[in-house]
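agent> call fold_tool(seq_1)
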Amino acid sequence: MASSVVCQYPSKSQLQDENFEDEMVVTSAADDDGKECNGAPKDTSPVIPGWYVDVSWPGEAHIYKMEKIIFQGKSEFQELLVFESSRHGKVAILDGDIQLTENDEFAYQEMLTHLALCSIPNPKKVLLVGGGDGGILREISRHSSVEHIDICEIDKMVIDVYKKFFPDIAVGYEDPRVHVHIRDGIAFIKYVPEGTYDVIILDAFQPMGPIAEVLADNCFLESVAKALRPGGVLSAPADSLWLKNFVVADTIAKCKNIFKGSVNYAWTTVPTYASGVIGFMLCSTEGPQVNFKHPINPLNPEQNGVAKGPPKFYNSEIHAAAFCLPSFVDKVVDSK
């Protein structure tokens, strides 16, 4: 199958079939005149019928065999693709960027949530910006001290699709403490009264789309710090330590200046994401001291909230270990 457009999505003919052929065929790119070229243009991915090609990092790709297209739709904000893979369960792709797979979503969701909520005593009010899949809501529900959970998700389509096709993840919406706001989270947080939340979780990073660039903006982070109570905490994804231009020292310096409390970088493994590793930035505001490296609010093994079972990845030992950095990263973090 030759094509003048090199893309990651399956063709219309492929979408009409529930299943795909086992053979893997790499199609060639074409130039403006429709003639075949010797290779794919820079920063594009090959079309491989029946396979999804994730090119989150330049120079490499992860390839997933698609057994069946489950959903493909476009809202006024973005395009969402869901397919059944041969090894990773259902996979969600948003605007060409992989969001999660059923195989390992819990590693990211649990760590992003509990690194923050287990580091302070009795968190009561939590804000989630993004996280429309509901997995972080599922994890927050494990904390019985929490009385109120706000989630800001700009796209109702995302919520509806996850509820329909990922019920074990979207189960978080069943928590009666959850209040859903279908609006721009960045605009929402700017008008939050000072000191409203104990914890704010930002669920967006570069491979998740353009919104991640805005979440790194100083003015927005200042709004986040203002919305937190003294000693309140922020949890957000950060660069993988394997990123070629790893600049976490600059991020830490910026966050220390804005939040005035503790700032730490943690990491964990999530095979789905580029390099198999994702980082986390944990920040606390000025006030009661927060030591992220030693959780003081451990999960109650008898309290699972609306989740269907206990955590699959997170525990107190993993929490502490997440802040142990390889030597080459430790040098970068300590450089400022």
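agent> call fold_tool(seq_2)
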Amino acid sequence: MSKDTIANILTSIRNADMNKKRTVRIPYTNITENIIKILLREGFIENMRKHQENNKYFLILTLRHRRNKKGIYRTTLNLKQISRPSLRIYSNYQRIPRILGGMGIVILSTSRGIMTGREARLERIGGEILCYIW
């Protein structure tokens, strides 16, 4: 059993996206809720709701898809975990990487909570780089 919750949610979302699933159910923690709120705010997922089952909470995510003339196709999410329990990666605000020239996002864990790289640069806060998403 893995204790790395960030790796678990990224893998669940990546697997559901590759298998063309519309919804994903992930275990609820405060960290996962904050990361999913960032993904929702940045437009990488469509919807999030909290669900309780046998005194355990889950987040049910609706993955984003687009329509074109030929029908519905899903956008592919590229999720990459950077910091792991065995190797933490820290960065000051000046060295936070830009993903695809600003098209992707970096999610950081800072002293003021979990935020995107853009927000951390504006507030001049460094922190632990959790993952890249594009």
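agent> summarizing second result for user.
The beta strands are 23-27, 45-53, 56-63, 65-68, 71-74, 79-81, 90-91, 105-110, 113-116, 127-133. The helical segments are 5-18, 30-42, 117-123.
agent> awaiting next instruction.
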